[in-house]
Amino acid sequence: MATVLMLLLGGGACSPGERSPLERIQDAEARAVLSRALEAAGGWENWQALQTIAYRKRTVLYDSLGKVESDRTQWHRYRLRPVLEMHIGWREGTDSLEIVLEEGQARRYRNGRPEEAPPETLQSTLSSALYTLFMPFKLLDPGTRLRYLGRDTLPDGRQAEVLAAHYDPTRHPNHSTAEPWRYYFDPQSGDFLAARVDHGDYRALILNESYAEFKGLRFNALRRSWRLDAHDQPAWMRGLFEYAFLP
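The structure assignment produced for this chain is given below.
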């Protein structure tokens, strides 16, 4: 089944050479923190110059007792400009699965044959892939409201400046969630350190542990996700995410 998606690059949708949309951010302190974070991630010019990217992503999910629930490796290939195209491939048992976005249409394939898939599932998968990989540039997406919350200390002892992000998918189809997020940045270097999300019935903290350079940009190479207890401290590790960027 094919579906037309309102899937935008958001902060990366401007033409090369166009000014950064940082000026849309009304909170001056939030704007300063994000400006520093963008420079730490490689800068606006390198982000605008990025045409293609390919990487391998391994995702390991654990239950509350530390037992592995799943261990999946995916291969991602994107063409970002002038028109967004995406290809995500992985294996399930003996089957080969793919999600492909071309000419604004998303399709899923199993062993090379089209397979029925809910449009919202395809959109969520593709949007999440872009959102996760391209932070902090995705904080420039149209409609994202940022607010500076001050400084905080992460569970691993690192100091951070904190931004709250508010999303409204009912008004902005490029938003995939209405859940409140917080983003943590190193006060000196601007490095993207962590993210926290409130899912309602539980809260999660994602810590960025290492980085990789690719085409002048700095991406996360290793991240771990933790479920938080009632005191906002890590209770157990939910996921491990490894990225390897390909030529």
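Interim note for the steering committee: The first helix runs from residue 28 to 40. Residues 132 and 138 are 9 Å apart (CA to CA).
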